[in-house]
Amino acid sequence: MRALGIDVGVTKGLDLVVLDDDLIPRQAWRRVGLGQLGGLIQDVSPDVVAIDSPPGWARSGRSRKAERDLRALGIQSFGTPTRRRATGNAFYTWMRRGFRAFRIAETRGYRRYGSGSPRRSAVEVFPHATAVVLAGCLPPAGSDKRRWRTRVLRSRRVEVTALGSVDQVDAALAALTGLEAARGRATAVELAGRGDRLVLVA
């Protein structure tokens, strides 16, 4: 089993990590442009592509139901608004890049995940939520994000030596979520009734 995890950024580009069943990052890239993504997906040929981004705008309001549900549990996330609410706001540029990543994955044969098996699909993941679920608690107040999430990966026997930044750590968490989903050990949470699913480690 193989998963490609993608952390989405704007000026920094994309961070990508490939995880196999042995949980050793087989490949990792930093500052990848969207123009390179399709070729890398084709070369890696993962069972699942796990993207740390929403795949599209909310149908209504300032956030999606799953995001609000996570916040109620103390897991903070950025709300995904409607296209109209996001218009003209540069903050949402990273989401627009995430949408493009999903479209690129689809051109390489990875449909946007909706239901059933996530294999050969592109799934939305949230590395922070995965880390919280795996740790069984929220990070301590004032803790270093990279160190805490790295410890979570180590606790799951993921080799972390090659992960050179917090963005690569998040890409590895995304890949781990994708692996667990492909193995049938993750939960898909419905997003605002549009058929999309946010995949979380069970």
What does this structure look like?
This protein has 202 residues and is an alpha/beta fold. It has helices at residues 34-44, 65-72, 83-86, 93-107, 127-135, 145-155, 166-182; strands at 2-7, 14-20, 25-32, 48-52, 111-112, 121-125, 186-190, 197-201. Strands 1, 2, 3, 4, 5, 6, 7 and 8 form an eight-stranded mixed β-sheet that branches. Helix 5 (127-135) crosses helix 7. The radius of gyration is 15 Å and the shape is globular. The longest helix has 17 residues, at 166-182. It starts with a strand and ends with a strand. Helices cover 37% and strands 21% of the residues. It has seven helices and eight strands, in the order βββαβαααββαααββ.
Short descriptors:
single chain; 202 residues; alpha/beta; 8-stranded mixed sheet; 8 strands; globular
Give the class from helix and strand content and strand pairing: alpha/beta
Structure annotation, total helices: 7
Overall shape? globular
The major sheet is characterized as: 8 strands, mixed
* Strand coverage percent: 15-25%
The averaged pLDDT comes out at 89
Low-confidence stretches: 190-196
- Count the E strands: 8
End-to-end gap: 18 Å
| H-E string | EEEHEHHHEEHHHEE
Radius of gyration: 15 Å
- The percent of residues in helical segments reads 25-40%
